[in-house]
Amino acid sequence: MRHILLLCLTVLLFACGNDTPPPPAMPPLSDLPLVPLPVEMSNTEGYLHLDHEKEYDHSGADAGAVDYLKSKGIMSLPLATAVEESLTLPEGAYLLEITPEGITISARDAAGIFNGTTTLEQVLAFSPNTERGRFLPAGTITDMPRFAYRGYMLDVARTFFGVDTVKAVIDRIAPYKINHLHLHLSDDQGWRIEIKSWPNLATIGGQFEVDGTPGGYFTQEQYKEIVAYAASRGMTVVPEIDMPGHTNAALSAYAELNLDGQARDPYTGTEVGFSTLDANKEVTYQFVDDVIRELAAITPGPYIHLGGDESAVTPHDDYVKFVREVQQIIINHGKLAMGWDEVAIAGLAEGTVAQLWNHTEYALMAQKLGNKVLISPATRTYLDMQYDSLSRIGLHWAAYIEVDSAYLWDPVKLVDGITNEDILGIEAPLWGETIRSIEDIDYLTFPRLLALAEVGWTQQNKRNYSDFLRRLKAQQVWLKEQGIGTYDTRVLK
Ligand code: NGO
Q1: Tens digits of per-residue pLDDT, 212-251?
Q2: What is the CATH number of the domain that holds 117?
Q3: Of 225, 256, 310, 325, which residue is the catalytic one?
Q4: Ligand 1 centre and the CA of 431: distance in Å?
Q5: CA distances (Å), origin 262, targets 229, 255, 258, 280
Q6: Which residue's alpha carbon is nearest to atom 4 within ligand 1?
Q7: Contact between residue 306 and residue 327 where contact means Cβ atoms under 8 Å apart
Q8: CATH number for 314
């Protein structure tokens, strides 16, 4: 009897041993190359084994999180999420826990759940994936954003990109916790959004792009599709109608908007600062009111960007009058205004955000008026700047911006007097003068955007350049695996 018992035990042990061979070598959670770097990561004993063949129960998980992960090919996970308003975490913060039994993400709000989901996406991408399944190191991540607004701007006016390309861009930037997509919808070279009460804006003003190639525009239905897609990836769309300068496309579509009543020819060059709306005509404000009304109706986010940059041929008093009126129109339609830093000259309404791009003195003016500043210095954040003089596309009027230059700065040190509380966040604009394709977008965006994403998300005292490079190296490989063409940066050589 004793022998039989011993035999049984041996067989049992052997069987168990066979069932659970040791896991593959796996870095602790805190060593995974996550970007942006989370605030706190702690490791616990053990790991979570995810069998490829098994269907896991994610009925306790937020449907948006599950759909997002599915869109990235992650079909089944033992995932639960919980929004707990009582959690003492700031907005957008989250807690991600991985145990041998499963994964939980908790947060105070939906944004936090989404942020935790993108961290999980990266944890999955950088953990061993073997024939026996995926193995995630156990541990806890507690994370929160430094700034509420982390933006990316796409200029669809100089070169038009259709819905599919915009969606592809949204997919590429979402894993890095970019939560605002600013669409530069009009400029001298093109008007890219259907306005039903002024149809020629799109049909005539949208005909061309830089170099004279055919342009295009979004119908309102297509725009709504982009807005919804962005929302499903944690992103709020900020539409921009650039005024009173940068308006040649509108001026080519409607003669009455011109100072001399004569419609302009389409413009396909890349000069700036030569066009203006007439600040003293009633029809101008009728036009602006109609455009903002229609745009506000299809924009769930709080902001409408009125441009306001480089209005070199608008007389000063006209500029002031115009920018004041337009802020009021935006408010009348239930939104807050955003404008490039020059708008501060006009005086700002409560809630208007000034986007610092080139004039620190105007940003400071905005701060003194009690308005928030969005940080986008051309010398650090402009993704259309070349990396160096050999970059195949891009401009260099502001600077050459390699990854080190995009990483090694602190938004609060930029302007004396502008503190953390004055800063809404940071944004990386990609202007379209030299880009023609998604390959061009990738080349200028990656890997630099990862540096800027970390500037916007991670507390300054947690950021460390050499550790960032360690993580960037792995991220660069992941980007390539996903078919995202990245610039081969010298900082990793
Ligand atoms: C400037 C200008 C844009 C250009 C961009 C190119 C701003 C706010 N206005 O930035 O029209 O496209 O530089 O880098």
Answers
A1: 999 999 999 999 999 999 999 999 999 999 999 999 999 9
A2: 3.30.379.10
A3: 310
A4: 7
A5: 40, 5, 6, 16
A6: 431
A7: yes
A8: 3.20.20.80
